[in-house]
Amino acid sequence: MAAPVLPPIGDDIKAWGQNLTTYLQRQLSRFYHKTTDDNPSEDGVVLWDTSKKYAVISSSGAFRQLATKQATPASSVGSTGDVIGMIAWDTNYIYICTASYDGSTAIWKRVGLSTW
């Protein structure tokens, strides 16, 4: 498998994150999709996890979610396609999806943001 090429990290980590998000949105169809046979033994392999609906990177023997912004949920119940592990944020809250959407269970939790 050929290693994907990601945007370089510069001095501005926020700009890098924005560039990475744009890159992921444009290149998603070109990503290799993670399968149950994939082994995270080599650090730095980026794959798209089709079952969890987010990008993962191999690090220290495990696949870890890349923090990519998902759509902010309209309610704690979420919507079709929401799965455990998704992360979203806006100017007031960080949202974490704690289960997969079933139409009635509250699956999104949120924590308020404040200045310090």
Describe the structure.
The protein is of the alpha+beta class and 116 residues long. It has 2 domains: 13-65, no CATH class; 69-116, no CATH class. The protein is 13% helix and 23% strand. The chain has a 3-stranded antiparallel sheet, with no helix packed on it. Strands 4-5-6 form a 3-stranded antiparallel sheet, with no helix packed on it. β4 (87-89) and β5 (93-97) form a beta hairpin. The chain is globular and about 35 Å long. The N and C termini lie far apart (45 Å). The mean pLDDT is 80.
Question: Which terms would index this structure?
Answer:
116 residues; alpha+beta; 3-stranded antiparallel beta sheet; 23% strand
Could you give the distance between the termini? 45 Å
Order of helices and strands: HEEEEEE
Biggest β-sheet: strands ordered side by side in the sheet: 1-2-3
Q: What share of residues are in beta strands?
A: 15-25%
Gyration radius, to the nearest Å? Answer: 15 Å
Taking pLDDT < 50 over at least 5 consecutive residues as the criterion, the unreliable ranges are none
State the helicity in percent bands.
10-25%
Total DSSP helices:
1
Strand count: 6
Shape: globular
The average pLDDT score comes to 80
Structural class: alpha+beta
The structural domain count equals 2
Main beta-sheet annotation: 3 strands, antiparallel
